[in-house]
Amino acid sequence: MAIEMSDLQKLVLQTKEVDEPAIPFPQADSFERVINICELLGARDYDRDDITGQYAFDARQTNYYTDAARYLGLVNKRRVGMQTRYNLSALGQRIQKLGYRQRQLAFCECILRHRVFREIFELCCEHGVVPEHDAIVEVMRRAQLYNVSSDSTYNRRASTVSGWINWMLKLLS
Q: By the 8 A CB rule, do 156 and 27 touch?
């Protein structure tokens, strides 16, 4: 069964908004890569260097994508000696076991728990298009995001918001 706009709209109504976590607001434009990180960690724990090597990322990109998965509650981060290790959270493990449709909806739910993404999705539904960059930045400013204060940071992170909303819209039949 395909995912319909009504499925996403139902998620907005049923999903409880969470407080912003004390994790950097995502700078990870490709939601597919966030999912890939979860799939990779579904097999075993990895350290930062392992992930960097698996994806031919630089270390900064590894941080962006693992932080994005942590922001959504899908991945845990811990220090083991001198290494930073990552593993799927209980939520991430539960989602990985779902069938395709339910899994994609569960990822959407994780996104829509966060005020900025929820508001931008609602604007998208209202106007029929993903809001312009400046409108996304304005919603982000009102949300008082953790450790985001400069114009350049808001501008970079806004592309993540549009990227993730566009990922959700591409799921529609």
A: yes
